[in-house]
Amino acid sequence: MFHCQAGARPRTWGASPPEHKKWVEVFKACDEDNKGYLSREDFKVAVVMLFGYKPSKTVIFGKFVFFQFLGIQLKEFLDIVRKKKEAQLYCNEVRHIFTAFDRHYRGYLTLEDFKKAFKQVAPKLSERIILEVFRKESRDVGGHLAGVPIWIKVISEI
């Protein structure tokens, strides 16, 4: 699975009331001693419960340095989860768009695929700009845009 970070511009998204309630319940379940905050271990468990994976040490360290090792309170936890959800939704949307333009399911876009894609989504964009972006980003030997991570970078730049 790729990480959707470089140039990613997720939209602001609000959780539905049931989803928000679930996040609060997870926070409370992971705050075993009712301290009012999550320790590093509590935070790891909460991420596993909500997203199905254990966060890396780098992610954990980054969050706790930001919150000065005091632990993550409910408000901060909800903000972290919301931002993670926004990024996931954005990445899924980008993957879906890439797949729609990769009509032959090759995992890359040719110049022709790329031109057709931009004629559909941005018909007023000049062909010169399309060619410049394609040439700049087509990195493999065959002159293709290889996969979703490059697609994310391309659409972030245009």
UniProtKB/TrEMBL annotation:
Looking up Pfam families in the UniProt record yields: EF-hand_7 (PF13499)
Q: Which PROSITE patterns match?
A: EF_HAND_2
The UniProt entry, under SUPFAM superfamilies, shows: EF-hand (SSF47473)
Example GO molecular function term?
A: calcium ion binding
Q: Which InterPro entries match?
A: EF-hand-dom_pair (IPR011992), EF_hand_dom (IPR002048)
Per UniProt, residues of the EF-hand domain are 18-53, 89-124
This protein's source sits in the domain of life called Eukaryota
Query: Under what name is this protein listed?
Result: EF-hand domain-containing protein
